[in-house]
Amino acid sequence: MADIETKPPVTTGKEEQRAAARTRVAERAQSGDTPGVSPDGEEGGISEAARRFQALKQSQALKQSRKEREAALLHRAVDIAPRVSAESLPEARPQKAPSLPINRREFLTYAWGGALTLVLAQGGLATLWFAYPRFKAGEFGGVFTLTSIPERGAKPVENLQGKFWWTNAEEGGMIALYKVCTHLGCLYEWKDQTRRFECPCHGSKFNQSGRNIQGPATRDLDQFVVTVLDSAGNPIDQTTPDHRYVVAGEGLTYKIDTGRKIQGRPSDPSLAVEA
Amino acid sequence: MYGVSRLVIATMALVGTFVVVLLTAAQEPARMERYAANFHGREIEVGAQIYFEACATCHGQHGEGLVGPALNTADLLVPAPGQTRPPRLLALNYSGDLRSYLEGTITYGRPGTVMPAWGQAAGGPYRPDQIAALVTFIMNWGLDPGKQWGGAPERVAIGGVEPVPVVAAVPMATPPPRNIRSVDLGKYLFHGPAGCAECHTFDMATGKTGPDLTDIVQNKGRDYVRTSIVNPNGMVAPDHAPGIMPQTFAFALTDIELESLIDYLENPTAATQVVFATPTPPVPLDGKQVAQNAGCLACHSLDGSPMVGPTWQGLFGHEVELEDGSKVIADEAYLYEAIVNPAAKIVKGYQNLMPPNYEQLLTPEQITAIIEYIKLLH
Amino acid sequence: MVGQDIRSRGLRGYLGAKADSVFERITAGIPWRDFRKMLRGDPPDRPNPRLKPHSESFWLHIKPTYYHESVTRFTHTFRLGLLSTYLFVVELITGLILMIWYAPTPERAYADMVRLLSNVPMGQFVRDIHRLAAEAMVIAVVLHMFRTFLTGSYKKPRQFTWVTGVVLLIATLFLSFSGYLLPWDQLAFWAVTIGTSMAEASPTPPGAGWIGTALFGTSDWVGQFVNLLLRGAPDIGAGGLLRFYLLHVFFLPLVVIFFFFFHYYKVVHFGISLPAKEEEVGQDTANRVPADKRRYYLMDIAIDEIALLSVVTFVLVAVSAFFYDAKLEHIANPLKTPLHTTAPWYFYWLQGLLKIGDKVFWGLVVPGILIVLTFALPYLDYNPSRRGKDRRYALAAGFLFASWIVVLSFMGLPLYAVQSPPAEEVVQEFMPEEGVGPIREIPWSELEIGVYDTRTFQGSVPYSEFERVILEFKERIAHDPGLPNGSGIITVEAAGPGLKRIKFQIDYTDRDGKPAQFIKTFYLHESSLYWEQFTF
Fold this sequence. Notes:
The structure holds 3 protein chains of 3 kinds. Chain A is of the alpha+beta class. Chain A has 2 domains: about 1-70, no CATH class; about 145-270, Rieske [2Fe-2S] iron-sulphur domain (Rieske Iron-sulfur Protein, 3-layer Sandwich). In chain A, about 25% of the residues lie in helices and about 20% in strands. The longest helix of chain A is centred in the middle third of the chain and has 28 residues, at about 105-130. Chain B is mainly alpha-helical. Chain B has 14 helices and 2 strands; from the N terminus they run αααααααααααββααα. In chain B, about 35% of the residues are buried. Chain C is α+β, with helices and mostly antiparallel strands. Chain C folds into 3 domains: about 1-60, no CATH class; about 70-285 and about 295-410, Cytochrome Bc1 Complex, Chain C (Up-down Bundle), CATH 1.20.810; about 420-535, no CATH class. Chain C has helices spanning about 1-10, 10-25, 30-40, 50-55, 75, 80-100, 110-120, 125-150, 160-180, 185-200, 210-215, 220-230, 240-270, 295-320, 350-355, 360-380, 390-410, 420-430, 440, 465-480, 530-535; strands at about 65-70, 295, 450-455, 485-495, 500-510, 515-525. In chain C, strand 5 and strand 6 (about 515-525) form a beta hairpin. Chain C is globular. In chain C, about 35% of the residues are buried. The interface between A and B is medium-sized, with 22 and 19 residues.
């Protein structure tokens, strides 16, 4: 407590009391022994019970004085004399304790802490890398390779494992339509009678190219990224959000990546139909 | 000051940990590839052990095909140009990939032929992982199809012990006819296509996987032996396990072959010829036997009674009405097409159920034999 | 109020003070300045704020506030208890991570292991650490027990602490054993089959037979009952795997955690026992430490622990990354037991006992008695002194016991007593059914195709690795008393793309004077990495 000086007496009684209390505590603390947590006290003349009581009071006083310390740091003295210039009352401001320079041990502790943070962060990243799933070709989430295409405008080919409809769109081009309806997640179906996709849950309807033409769904069907390779194995086309239908041709190899999905465009109202 | 050196050591240890983990992570992609290749290689080794124990007698030491079809061909193992599946699968119009085709064939066998069901799912001895290893071994041939590997072909025995070779007299020029009951036929089957010698011994004190068969007919009688061939799990010898002997011999062997086998077991020294050589029998085939082996008679009757497929009685040379109303004469060309491409012309009142792969399963001689036999049925 | 505070202190001052009070709450009683003083190594203020966390914080409340300086020497305890606990924590974390990729069914377990090692980034690394730390934990726990025995720290008043410790030892051994089965390879399957078969051999205590007759219809029921409980079926299969998995990830860790807190609470309550020569015989002042002898946990002892655990972490990581590779043999084959099947090394002593005689007496009764004696040690040892010179007999008995365990472990090794016929042994030595062996260590391309007959093989100096192995093979056959007139042939031929067939043939004269032959065939693929996979 040596770093908090007793202030010179101020005008009100409250301050006086506080100052006095502080002095008392400081004196007691300097003379007494470490309270410690161990219930077994030292050998000594006074009785065990009395010693304990003393310790209790000291700790209570300790709490009190810490509160007071806080109060002194945080609160301006309520009844400081008004109209006194700042320079003439330097004691009114709480004093700063002399700063502690960093020594080698403290620095090393921080260095060790930094190394620990590094190692823990690395461990966290490594765990994420470890845990992230990897898909095999032919597994949903992986790449499916197809070499044949349906006719343009014809009924799309269902791919059960990959969960997509392999469609040669009326609009022109190949598209792999994700089987899940863009409304609330049911699997829509192809209807031969009306030659379009219709969802049994809430009635969303999509045309053969995957465009939304009716129903509570508000966007077109989602699709998977398709990469097209020619007979030599060179990539010649790929799906992007701006280029949604890839070239349809014979003798080409199509790789549908069910791990990469492109969301359907918002519905075009000009395509809407009545029933 | 206490602890400074310890903190230095501790910090260095953690930095070292960081560096080691970083180094390991940097090498991970390459290591994973190496290990994937490692486990692939080990699977091939396991598959090889099984192949040379159980499959080589019929499919050849190099997969070149003997009694069973060739397995090391590009036709079976290498994807057709511009395709993802090999030509044989495309010709069959098989819907799955090569692995599922091979695993399915091995697991369930080919009823009507000597190819037994090997998988535990169908009552055979091998677990799914063992069959998967076998398929990996077979597909490995696709890296260099058609090549002959290794030294002189020899059969590798189970458990490291070769069967004591039968004393040779004259090497067998051709195997005995399959339609005449004889001890020679039994011996040929025992050491050859039926594969008995893989698991049963004859000349030693204890059997290998299966019980020793010395004097079995004398001790137990023909009926016992016959039953244990056609229904192996019906009588399991003590200290041997059920579910290992293939269950499909009842379908694979004709009565003549079965009785010949038992004749051989009864009196092995009566056989005049020795272990088989590579067969391509120029013997005229018995069309009825071929039809029976190929499973035709399961769907086509010989006496006019209605079955799944049209009856053969009175078929040849007569008019047949097809499902589209047209009528054709059932001549040799029609019969040949009906066998190799059944879907081309469906007879009215029947469905398209006939297996489409008889062109692969039967040799042209066998198909001719069937047709010749059908011609005999008035 | 806040506005006034800011104006009086300045914004920085206000925020700094606020931060300090938050900091003090997080550290449970040490404000920033005192924290820095602690890190600097300055003497504490009066009253000492570094004692607060020991009563107010969760993490530190179980740690003692201070230790007697005599017990803080590293060589007093070697901090083995701390090491055991830390290794358990490492196991919990690595185990939890591994659970992401593993499911305990026979259809999947082995494939999951293969995937873990070949298609999961850092998969092999995490698995290696898990296995290495498990083995290290068994060693640490045993050494800790031995140290406690040597310092006599199991005596009054710490007897019950010892008892909880023995429970923890048994739990550790069974944690290791239950985890052993999970890879579902040949090693796992057969080692655990042996272990649980011993459970099956449990004798029914005389007089308890009626229970069995009433419930199961047989009076010799205990072995069968225990066996079915453990395996879920007469043989190890899906039921056994699942039960062992549940033991391994749930039941046994719970036991360890519960008994650990029991154990450690007692340790702190009584204090670490002082070196015996500093106290009177029969006296225990460990938890009444005079002020001048105190060394506070914060921060000196904490630094010791930090240093030890950091170094242990580094050693675990470095050894796993560079030296140690947990092996994976072929998939479990319930129909074929491979040659040289062994129990895990910490059960070699048990396997050694089994080789002495009757499996019930030597495999169950004797270990049972040993375990009971270990539990009862503090209650049987009535000598109140912890000093070495007063405990000559006890120490001698302890060392004798330890050496017996070592001898039994040596007897449990596969080399001792379990021999196949000599020709089979020779081949097993050169190309074992599971594992590496000299042949598989040779690079695949150097296994030249050809027939190598020991009767005619010369080789040419300088010998290639393969030639050296062939000559070793020749020597081995020549010096084997079980193979009179013995000779061998190694044949290497191509068997497929990237695949070689290696055939061993040994011809010799058998006991009846007749010529005998032993043949065994192996296949070796160019990509298989046995030498890398099977280190130790």
